[in-house]
Every structure is written in C-alpha cells, then in structure tokens.
Write the structure tokens for this entry.
Amino acid sequence: MKLEIKNLTKAFGGIKAMDDVSLTFPSGSLSAVIGPNGAGKSTFFNLISGAFPADSGEVLLEGQDVLRLSKAERMRRGIGRAFQVASCFPTMTVAENLMATVTAHVGQWGNISRRFPPPGVRERAEEVMELVGLNKVSNVEAAILSHGDQKLLDIAIALALEPKVLLLDEPTAGMGPDERWRMIERVRGLWERGKLTLVFIEHDMDIVFQIASTIRVLCYGRVLAEGTPAEIRNNPAVIEAYLGAEHSGEAA
Amino acid sequence: MKAHPAWRDAVIAAIAVIVVLAIPLFHRSPAFEDFVIRLSAMALFATSLNLLVGNTGMVSFGHGMFYGLGAYAFALTMQMTDLSLPVAAVLAVLFTTFAALCVGAICVRLSTDYFAFITLAVQMLFFSIIISWQSLTGGDQGLRGGIPRREIFGFELASQLHLYQFCTVVAVLGLLALRHITTSPFGQTLRMIRDNENRVSFLGVVLWQARLRAFTIAGAFAGLGGVLAALFVSGAYPELADWPNSGQAIFAVMLGGINSFLGPVLGAMILLALNDVVTRFTEYYGLVLGIVILAFAVGLRRGVLDFLRLAWPGRAR
C-alpha cells in the first residue's frame, strides 16, 4: 500500500516538531528515515500511527486520508508499528502476547462467553512466531526475554495485526553489532515475504546504506533530503547536518 | 499460565462445595458455620475487587459501596415487598450492577491516582447518604427489624445450617463465574491493559469500555457478597458501605495475593480468622492487624498464594 504524507505539521508549545513534511513511500518499498537526535523521526511515526494528533496535514493510505481516524482504526486500515523501546505485555508468555493480540484483532477482546484463546487464534499466533523466529521461546514470559527477542516480539505483535504499512522505530536499538545485522536481515526477510511497505528509523549508517532502497533525512522537523543511498551519501547538506565526513561519498 | 479446560475449575468448585457441605454432617460447630457464612460474603467481595486490582491494575478504594449497596438493596426489598428471597437477591444484584455502571462511567476514564481518589470520594458520598436518609435506611443505627426469612425450595434460612449451605453454594457459584471471566478472552484483555495500556490502545481495544465493563462486573459480584452479608446480620449497617470496609477488601487481596485467583479468598480467611482470634485476647485488633500486614509486606513482599506460587513454580494459578 502506498503511504503518502502531505504537509504534516505538529507543534509542541512553540516548538515545531514537525514542520510541513511531505513524503511518499511507494507500495512495497523499503525506506529508512534518518536524522540527528531530536529531528522528529519518532514524532513522525507517532503522527502517522495516531499516537497523538497532528495540527494539520494529510496521511494518505492508498489515497485515503486517515489522519483524523483513531489509532485503532488506522491499525485496522493497515498501519502497523513497533516501538523504539520494545512494547509488549511483560507478564504474559510470547504465545499469550500474540494470541491476545490476534484475539483483539479479530474483534473478540470483549468476549466472556468462552475460554481464552478463541478458536483459530493459537494457529495464527504460531504462524507469526514462526515468521519472526520466536517459536523456541513461545512459553517464556516476555519480561525475561533477551533484549533482542523483546524487540522481535514487539514487531511480531505489529505483524499479527496484518499490516500493509509497517513502521519500525529503531529495530536495532540497544543491540551489539552482530545482533544488529541479524535483526535487520530478519526485518528485510519479513519485508520481502510480506510485500510490506516498510519504513524504519535507524542510526547505524552501514545498515541504512546497505538495506534501504530510499532514504529520507529529517532535521529540525523538516525534510532535509530524500533519495537513493548514493544520492544521500553525496548530499552536502546531509553531510554537514548529520553524516560528517566518515560516511560521505568522498570517504567511501 | 496454561489454558486449563473449564471442567477442571468446575470439578474443584464441586469438590469444595461437597467438602464444606459435608462438614456439619460430622461435626456441628456454630462458630465454624458462622465463619464460613461470613467468609462467603467476604470472599466474593475481595475476589471481585481483585478483578480490578490484580487483573486490570485499577486500584479502587471505594469497592465497599457496592457491597453495602447490595446489602441495603436486598434487605430493603425483602422488608418492603413480598418477593421471594431469590428474586429479591437478583433484583439487589441488578440494582448494584446498574449503580456500578453509573459510578464507573464517571470514574474509569481517570488515570490511576485519580481513579483511586474518586472511587473513595463516591463511596463517602454514598455512605453519607445512608447515614442521613434515616427514614429509609435507619441512619447510623442501620436497617433493623430483620429480614423476613421466607422459605425457599424447602430451605428455611432462619436455620443456621440452611444459611450455611445457601451461602456456600452461592459463593462458590459466584467465584466460579468470576473465574470464568478471568480466563475468558475479556479476562486476557484486562491483563493486557494492566501490562501495557499504551500498546493495547493500538490493538483495537477500547480502553474505557473494557475498564467500565470490568468495574461493572466487579460491582455486581461485590453486591452479591453484600446480599450474603445482609442475610448473615439479618439487616444492613452503614459500616458495610464505609471506607474501612473497602480497606478490608484491599487487605484481603494483598494478604492472599493479587496474581492468584484464590488469593483474595485466602486473604479473607486470614483476616476473618485473625479478627476472631485476636478480639478474644485483646481490644487492640487494629494494632495486631497492622503488624501482621507489615510482616507480610516486608517479609514476603507479596501475598501468600503469590509467594507460594513463586516458591514452587509450575503450579496452576
């Protein structure tokens, strides 16, 4: 599904966290959003997913504006997201996390007439666990999972909702170098298999340049640049604001 | 938690009923029978509160108002009408359910601290209505004149044995219903809300609706407990609806364990037993109770059943 952002604006007090941002993510694309701390990357995701309301603008999903819909309704239309700090249900096992998510997704969250889980839910949860590779820890409580598995579970919860567009806020945050690559390969695998429109925020430039087909650079709530990895690498404004000489085209 | 089949709970409940009902066949002890009758009311009261505290993470300090309301609604219906006891009980519970829905509609949208605060405030309001509406409620004297013990299905509730049997069956059925709710998809939703309210709101769960429903259900079962309490005291007293009574339920929940379904029942047992034993020896009941609770809070750092479950993992909830 194509995700199109038009003139998105949000101010907190006097500070414009998102200033007239317009970006298009074509259906089935794999894009990275980069930028210095405080550039508005997480705000961008929060506004698209509906975590808090925007001041003005449009968020078009296949041409339909969803900006005034509730976050749950946007999710139903196909916008899924995972969080920078893994967001799951700590006292439940991995399987319960996903079964409960699927139960809510199929509209059974208020059901008191039968036992949890409702029929079909366990199978769907197992599919998702298989997909992200969490099946070996299915009976482990989320609170005692490794950091990487918690991040995976967060993504799995998003996937259980059958998103068309998936927003991943720093999927590799807090991971060592090896773990990062394993994670991002897995994310790429999910993208290929699921025919998703995937957007991820990432700070590791090696990963960004290797994985993303297009890159968007945010700075002070504005779009500083967009383009292919090669274009971004050689963009003087980006080098100055964010990359420094290390990752620029000249150094590479 | 493994998903246990429903019949397992039903079997446990049936065994509990049979055992409790069999005891008087071998040994009659009025003190013990009184204890079970009081426990049946208190167990429903505390377990229904735990649906909010333990399952949903909503700490209500005003749960006693629904207990008191159930007692008054039932006692007044029995005194003022000729309805049979089961009908009056059902009406009292329905009335309490409706009241919980109304109170909940005001309270559940507030954040944790203010939710606790406003539930307490509403309870105090309700308590002062009971005190001041003398013509209806008897004011601080309580509702006297007794409850007409009309016979039901050959049961004569004026007899202590029959009351004992009636309360046991009602309490176990009520607990079984609450157990069913906590193990349903809705029960799991409440657990999600407790764990991570922000994430749940992305999953299509309407938070306030889920909370309101939990609050209403909890109020209904507290009302049922109140009906049993009214039968025991043969009337209704404002103390039933006063905030220290809400505190008793919170103590029971904390003592027994908030993460175990039967924790509040055990907590209620401990509280009632303490009350009976301690008041025999000293008038400083509150002092002893405080020390015991302190010992649990500092020593175990959790309720008894939660502690045992942690010590022997792999056991059922």
Summary: Chain B has a mean pLDDT of 89. Chain B has 14 helices and no strands. Chain B has one domain: 5-242. Residues 5-242 of chain B form one domain.
